């Protein structure tokens, strides 16, 4: 039996009469690259905030790394990493200062931070830039560094919210190579994106439409099910079907 590191059952988040997340259910296995896909406004980020212990659900059940999203949010935060497209690094700090700061926030011992910092800047090819302000780096390098910082404390799960937004296709591919490497060490990757081609890189994907899970399977199985050539076609069929059912 594969270890389930995320379990959701009928998870719901309501704002007044609006359902941002509407009774979603799924499970994520240890070491899996799990894509959480959908257009902007589909409910992806709202659901992720609940799973990260940053927001409480209105109803339903969920556990992350074995901890309850209602009662054990602090324990959840200690066992996860998080990276957002909008904010992940302090641009007025240097590369090394960012690594050291987040290492401390995540509770990594000082001696271990120094050791891992040296290894990380070498691995990323940032030795010459280690004492430069992060704000001076190209966006692609910032994203690679932000991901590396998010897994610096070796979390059980890392949540990536639109991590490749705004970067060029080559950098996106390199970023996904880093994701594969992290997953190979046993870290579970939970990634939201509106780039349907990135679904091809995931072991399984959930497709959200208007706050609901409309599909959940491997990319290959979904393409076969919908007789589609790519994930864009799968999403189009799902979105069109959801719109028709709501008319």
TrEMBL record:
<protein>
    <submittedName>
        <fullName>ABC-2 type transport system ATP-binding protein</fullName>
    </submittedName>
</protein>
<dbReference type="InterPro" id="IPR027417">
    <property type="entry name" value="P-loop_NTPase"/>
</dbReference>
<keyword id="KW-0547">Nucleotide-binding</keyword>
<dbReference type="Pfam" id="PF00005">
    <property type="entry name" value="ABC_tran"/>
</dbReference>
<dbReference type="InterPro" id="IPR003593">
    <property type="entry name" value="AAA+_ATPase"/>
</dbReference>
<keyword id="KW-0067">ATP-binding</keyword>
<dbReference type="GO" id="GO:0005524">
    <property type="term" value="F:ATP binding"/>
</dbReference>
<dbReference type="InterPro" id="IPR003439">
    <property type="entry name" value="ABC_transporter-like_ATP-bd"/>
</dbReference>
<dbReference type="GO" id="GO:0016887">
    <property type="term" value="F:ATP hydrolysis activity"/>
</dbReference>
<feature type="domain" description="ABC transporter">
    <location>
        <begin position="6"/>
        <end position="235"/>
    </location>
</feature>
């Amino acid at each position: 039996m594969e270890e389930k590191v995320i379990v959701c059952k009928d998870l719901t988040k309501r704002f007044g009469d609006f359902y941002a997340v509407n009774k979603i259910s799924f499970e994520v296995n240890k070491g899996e690259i799990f894509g959480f896909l959908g257009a902007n406004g589909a409910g992806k980020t709202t659901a992720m905030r609940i799973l990260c212990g940053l927001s409480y659900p209105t109803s339903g059940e969920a556990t992350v790394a074995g901890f309850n999203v209602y009662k054990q949010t602090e324990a959840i935060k200690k066992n996860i990493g998080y990276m957002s497209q909008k904010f992940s690094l302090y641009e007025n700090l240097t590369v090394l200062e960012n690594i050291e700061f987040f290492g401390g926030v995540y509770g990594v011992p000082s001696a271990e931070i120094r050791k891992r910092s040296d290894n990380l800047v070498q691995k990323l090819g940032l030795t010459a830039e280690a004492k430069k302000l992060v704000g001076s780096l190209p966006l692609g390098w910032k994203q690679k560094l932000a991901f590396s910082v998010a897994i610096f404390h070796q979390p059980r799960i890392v949540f990536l919210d639109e991590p490749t937004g705004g970067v060029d296709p080559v950098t996106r591919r390199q970023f996904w190579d880093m994701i594969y490497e992290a997953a190979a060490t046993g870290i579970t990757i939970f990634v939201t994106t509106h780039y349907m081609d990135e679904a091809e890189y995931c072991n399984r994907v959930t497709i959200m439409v208007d706050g609901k899970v409309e599909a959940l399977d491997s990319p290959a199985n979904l393409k076969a099910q919908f007789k589609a050539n790519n994930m864009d076609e799968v999403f189009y069929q799902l979105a069109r079907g959801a719109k028709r059912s709501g008319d």
